[in-house]
Amino acid sequence: MESHAGLAATPRALPYYVAFSQLLGLIAVATTGAWLGLYRGGIAWQGVLQFNVHPLCMVIGLIFLQGDALLVYRVFRNETKRTTKVLHGLLHVFAFIIALVGLVAVFDYHRKKGYADLYSLHSWCGILAFVLYFVQDQV
Q1: What is the pTM of this model?
Q2: Which of 51, 46, 25 is nearest to 36 (CA)?
Q3: Hey, how many other C-beta atoms are within 10 angstroms of the C-beta on 116?
Q4: How far apart (Å, rounded) are the C-alpha atoms in residues 57 and 45?
Q5: CB 48, CB 40: distance < 8 Å
Q6: Would you tell me the crossing angle of helices 121-138 and 81-113 to the nearest 10 degrees?
Q7: Cβ-Cβ contacts under 8 Å for 69 (sequence gap 6 or more)
Q8: Which pLDDT band, with edges at 50, 70 and 90, does 133 fall under?
Q9: What's CA 111's distance to the chain center, in Å?
Q10: At residue 16, what are phi and psi to the nearest 5 degrees?
């Protein structure tokens, strides 16, 4: 009898779960973009629309790209470990950079408007989430 200890079985439904998760992620990004475009006036790096960069970058970076980075090892289980590690790392780096752009946008907007930084529970929880995300990426 052959041993299959080295081969991990792929659940039959995994491709459907991955497709569903990608669809949900794209819907979240599209919904955020539509909300910002239709109801908040769009996005721009200058002026009052600079604040709108923040929610879009957070959704793209910390929801969509981070989720994809977490799925790499399950989706590409037949690829070499080096390939999956590189893809996993790149997705985390892109997620971090995009989330950092979102943070810079909101802090810069607050500075330009003369608003205080970190004045709400949302801002403190957001900073904590970002720092913990960065720390866990380094481990």
Answers
A1: 0.85
A2: 51
A3: 8
A4: 12
A5: no
A6: 150
A7: 88, 91, 92, 95
A8: confident
A9: 25
A10: -70, -40
